[in-house]
Specification:
The complex is a heterodimer of chains A (122) and B (137). Helices cover 84% and strands 0% of the residues of chain A. Chain A is mainly α and 122 residues long. In chain B, helix 3 packs antiparallel against helix 6 and helix 4 runs antiparallel to helix 5. Classes of the chains: A mainly alpha (122), B mainly alpha (137). The interface between A and B is large, with 50 and 48 residues.
Chain lengths: 122, 137
């Protein structure tokens, strides 16, 4: 990548980092991760999710109660105040990032974020 | 006599956070549009869009696809025809050039995304998508 382009990408990153919404999100994320209760609750939910999806991928049929238990756990995680704060902050970040992505896309005429996320052919 | 204001109005400093983001994104998009990788990709895209053979093959593929959608004829036959036509199209040098230029440009976009994300402290592209899931990382 040419240095001017790299510098411009970093400049955008730095501007985004200084945005109030990003600072609020990073702060909320740190707090949610530092809190034992919210961190362990979320880690547990991810563990359960991983186990259930692996079983499903292996052709196993999940019981209704297992699915309901997972949804209850997810609700518990999502209603934790620190996680709620973090997720609300992330929604604000996404709005700012989407505007930045659209601005790049407008200059190109092709979807920048879609291309950045596209898988490379081996 | 009023005291002259000592405040110097520098547009960049008086911008709101969002305006700064828009300006930085605009500048990056402009630079990216000037790169040889993007220009090659754009040219290859124009070339395939203007090629009569590609247009003809695309139209035939669409016909088979429509037939499947509307339940006309034999699905397997339509799918077989589509596979043949797609293979025919993919073998065209023009289309191969397009795919190559697209891969090169995708690689550059990913590098740019990585640079933005690293400095921002939050993954950029997954969170900049208009819809779908983007984990905050």
């Amino acid at each position: 990548m040419n240095p001017e382009l790299l510098e411009s990408a970093r400049a955008l990153g730095a501007t985004l980092n200084q945005a109030k919404s990003v600072q609020a999100y990073l702060q909320a994320k740190t707090e949610a991760e530092a809190n034992t209760e919210s961190a362990s609750l979320e880690a547990h939910m991810l563990d359960v999710y991983q186990t259930l999806t692996t079983r499903q991928q292996n052709g196993e049929q999940l019981t209704q109660s297992e699915v309901q238990e997972f949804y209850a756990l997810r609700n518990q995680v999502q209603s934790h105040p620190l996680i709620q704060t973090r997720d609300t902050a992330l929604a604000q970040v996404k709005s700012v990032f989407a505007e930045a992505g659209t601005e790049i896309t407008n200059q190109l005429g092709v979807d920048f974020t879609a291309l950045a996320l596209a898988a490379l052919e081996e | 006599m009023s005291t002259p204001s000592t405040k110097i109005d520098l547009p960049i400093l008086s911008m709101t956070g969002d305006a700064k983001v828009t300006q930085a994104a605009h500048a990056l998009g402009k630079l990216l549009a000037e790169t040889p990788e993007y220009q090659a990709f754009l040219q290859a895209l124009k070339d395939i869009n203007h090629d009569l053979e590609v247009q003809k093959l695309s139209a035939k593929i669409r016909e088979h696809d429509n037939a499947i959608q509307w339940g006309r004829g034999n699905v397997l036959e339509h799918q077989g025809e589509m596979t043949t036509l797609q293979a025919q199209m993919e073998s065209m040098p023009l289309v191969q050039t397009y795919h190559t230029s697209e891969q090169i440009f995708v690689r550059l976009c990913r590098e740019i995304d990585a640079a933005i994300s690293e400095t921002a402290g939050v993954p950029f592209a997954p969170n900049a998508r208009k819809s779908g899931c983007g984990c905050g990382g």
